[in-house]
Structure prediction request, 482 residues.
Amino acid sequence: MPERLSLTRAARLIGVTRGMLQKKIQQGELMTFEGKVAISDLATAYPAARIEDNSTLERFTRIKDDAFAHRVRERILPDPEVLLARIETLTRELVSLKSEVEQKRVLLHRISMEIAAADVGGAASAKHTLSTLGLILREQELVPLQPDTSLLIQNHFLRIMTAQIRLLPSNHEFLIEGNDTILDAALRSGLSLDYGCSSGNCGLCKAKIVSGETKKIRYSDFTLTEAEKADGYILLCAHTAITDLVIEATEAGGTRGIPLQHIVARVKTVQELSETLMLLHLQTPRSSRLRFLAGQRVTLMIGDNALDAAIASCPCDDRNLQFHLPKAVLSGSTMPTLKPGDSVTLEGPRGDFVLSEESQRPLLFIAWGTGFAPIKSLIEHAMALNAAESISLYWINESQWGHYMHNLCRSWSDALDNFRYAPLIAASEPELKRTLDGIASEVRDLGKHDIYVAGPKTWAEIIAKYLNGSGLPMTQLLLDYL
Prediction:
């Protein structure tokens, strides 16, 4: 039987998104068996894939690290003991496979000998049948067992450097690399596992290991009972994976699964985005990170002022929170001037402007002005999930100066083959409708997309009315009013 890979590992191996693989499957260009693809079929579908050519994967990894505001860090090897354990596991598998191959070769030889003996004294028809079978078996012995050596080598290397985690009951999958804990890897992959302090004190990230081996790499104060340990429970914030794992773990089931939180964060930086906007970068304590879904909002308590603000960063880096705020608000007469180190209290998250993670439709985002803030969070989350077949961003402003993160959007478009970015200008309702006509003409079939629109209520409602009139089902349209 050919070696088969999960879609998560196959996508990583080739350097494409899961969504792009799923599209090939839907089009009949790639076959699956029990949700997995054979390496031989993968090599046929992507004939240009070679171990030497990792440019797509490297570009995708780089843009994720740069664009998601992840902490700056080197890609380091796993813990030596973890690496050794993975090599030992793969070695055992290799020995087992070689033994199986040798047994089959012996079997083929014996069958060939039996057929040759029967061929000597059998009837004409039997002789013909046996001769044919013997020819087929001899030809089979000459067929190379591993025609896709390049992908096989790359896959074994990937298995040493990473482990794959599958969550139950959702069947969500992600890869863990370096010295990441299971919790950190899940969050970086865009998944919303249940957790609290993330430092081994509260026990909320307790989960059951169904299969596979783990290693504790961080100290934890929370104590599991002996019965829990015997049943395979661990703290995800304190353990990493030695081998591929299957885990029973609780995930947030939409916005209702995210609790309302009160957190005191510190100002890390305050930077100018444009003549009218500022970027506020807050950092939460390590033991009290904000759990939220991309696209949600919080209330910022700055002095005696309460300010409703969309989070403009990805949940995959839940300590570092970004907000795009008007200068006029931050510099108002009743608002204290913020500087690095100042305290800001967060209350939230709130809102239902979040991704439909189970949908496999292409994603189309339309941002008007500062509606880009929650859209940015959604896009970064979609990239972290690595599941969207394609992503399109249309950012509309009254002038070209309104695209205050134009270079970031261009970097997404340059680095990702399945990302489309278009900065657009519309200063009036007639211009907006002509702009929407252009989008519809370019996209062609809006009804095949999930569309997210964010901006001032007046403009967002005009866009929503246009999309509904174009045949887009209401279930595939989500709005966020500023």
Summary: The first strand starts at residue 4 and ends at 6. Residues 364 and 459 are 17 Å apart (CA to CA). The domain at 161-248 is CATH 3.10.20.30 (Ubiquitin-like (UB roll)). The two ends are 55 Å apart (CA to CA).
